[in-house]
Amino acid sequence: MESLRDKHVENTRQTLLETGARLFAELDYAGLSAEELVRAAGLTRGALYHHFDGKKGLFDAVVDDLQQRAAQRIRAAIDSSTDPMELLERAMEAFLDVCTEPVYRHVVLLQGPIALGWQRWREIDQRHLGGLVVSGAQALLEAGRIQPYPPELLASAIYGALTEMSLTIAESDDLARSRAQAAGLTRALLDGLIAPVTDN
To answer: Where are the beta strands (DSSP E) in 34-171?
Structure first.
């Protein structure tokens, strides 16, 4: 059974995560101080450093949490699909929807690569979203639905295209238009990979 202390520790951590997500979404990472974070959370600097080793550690955890939630949302979108092509299309649509959401866009896409550095940001992104791309590509290959490119290259191509499109969408002044254009482009890319029908 969870002790009162354990519950308090988890509540403190969750409060910091929620406060961090809200403030990082409203303000730029560089302009937000650790003092402002703990004051908004109603906690002490000691709590921040105990759980996250400071502002950067909290930001890292917020990005990780948002990416995990994005992956869960994508899995929910494809849960009822059995056709590999439909599965990948649904996953891409769900991902593009996530990219236009204010908190995800501002924290993960606009600030994440700058605050964490490209290597760490990509590591988090790959951990939560990369596997979905790999499994989707593998399913298409096994079903013979797309041309037989090496699985690792195929997954890298799809993942790379989606990653760059997500960053472009985030920087757009017209999110709805950019998202619609990205959706059209992803469908065109998939169409270009479809295996030609051969006569038996």
So the answer is: none
CATH architecture of 4-193: Orthogonal Bundle (1.10)
Q: Amino acid identity of 152?
A: E
Over residues 142-177, the pLDDT tens digits come to 888 888 888 888 889 989 999 999 999 999 999 999
Identify the DSSP state of 163: H
Domain boundaries, the chain: 4-193
Q: What's the DSSP call for residue 83?
A: S
8 A C-beta contact, residue 167 and residue 109: yes
Cβ-based neighbour number of residue 68 at 10 Å: 14
- What's the chain's length in residues? 200
Between CA 85 and CA 195 the distance in angstroms is: 12
Compute the distance between CA of residue 82 and CA of residue 44 in angstroms, rounded to an integer: 49
- CA gap 24, 61 in Å, rounded: 12
Compute how many other C-beta atoms are within 10 angstroms of the C-beta atom of residue 142: 10
User: Ramachandran region of residue 54, left (φ > 0), alpha (ψ -120 to 50) or beta?
Assistant: left
List, for residues 5-33, the tens digit of each pLDDT value. Answer: 666 678 899 999 999 999 999 998 999 99
Tokens 């029908």 — which residue?
A: 197
C-alpha closest to that of 159 among 189, 192, 196: 189
